[in-house]
Amino acid sequence: MTFKDLTPDKIFRIHDFVVKKYKIDGGFNNKGTVESLLEKIQFLEYDDVYKNGALLLEGLARLHPFVDGNKRTALLSLQQYLNQNGHLLFLPLSTTAFLHKIAATEENDPENTEKLVKEIGIWLKNNSVTEKKKLRALGMFYAYYVWPTKLIVFFSRIHLPKVAGFILKKYLKHNVSDLDENMIEFIMDTQLKQMEFMAHKEDS
Length: 204
Fold this sequence. Notes:
The protein is mainly α. It has a single domain (8-203), classed as Fic/DOC protein, Fido domain (Four Helix Bundle (Hemerythrin (Met), subunit A), Up-down Bundle), CATH 1.20.120. It contains nine helices and two strands; from the N terminus they run ααααβααβααα. It has helices at residues 8-22, 31-44, 49-63, 70-83, 95-104, 110-126, 134-157, 161-172, 181-203; strands at 87-89, 128-130. It has a two-stranded antiparallel sheet. Helix 4 runs parallel beside helix 9, helix 7 (134-157) runs antiparallel to helix 8 (161-172) and helix 7 runs antiparallel to helix 9. The radius of gyration is 17 Å and the shape is globular. It starts with 7 loop residues before the first helix and ends with a helix.
C-alpha cells in the first residue's frame, strides 16, 4: 500500500505555524534530522499507516530537530499525515504524559526505541478513526474534548478547584502541578481542527 508522505518543507511550515501561534523560539537544532527521518520512513514504509505515523511522532518528539516546539510540531505533523491518508486523530489529554515518555527515551537504545514505536502505533490506533466512521469520530470528540472541558469548567465555577484538579489529573495521568498549559491548549485546539477537517470533507 502506498501512503501520501509528508515533505520536509511541510513539516518546516508546520513548525513555523507552531512558533507564531504559541510565541516560542524558532530555529533548528539540526535541520537534517527532519530530512533523514522522512527518508527513513519512506524507505521502511510499512503497510500500516499507524506504524509509519509512529516513526514520525517518535522521531520528531525525541530527536528534537527544532529549538522549541518539537512535541507540538510532531503531533501536528502526525495529524496531517493521518488526515491526508484518510484518518482522523483525536488526542486525549493524557497525551501530555505520553509525549514526556517519548521524549525521555534514550536515543542510543535501539531495543527500547523499537518497543516505543510499537507502543506509539497501538496508541495511534486506539485514538484514531477512519474519516468514514463519522459517528465514532463524534464520540471520540465528545469523550476527549467536550466532557472533560465541561466538567472542569463546571467544578471551577462552583468553586471546587480540588474536584476540577482531580478531573484534570485523571484525564492527564500526571500531576497537575507539572502541566504545560500551552500543551493543554494545543491539544484542545487539535480536537477542534479534526472536527473542522471532517466537516470540510463532508462539504467537498
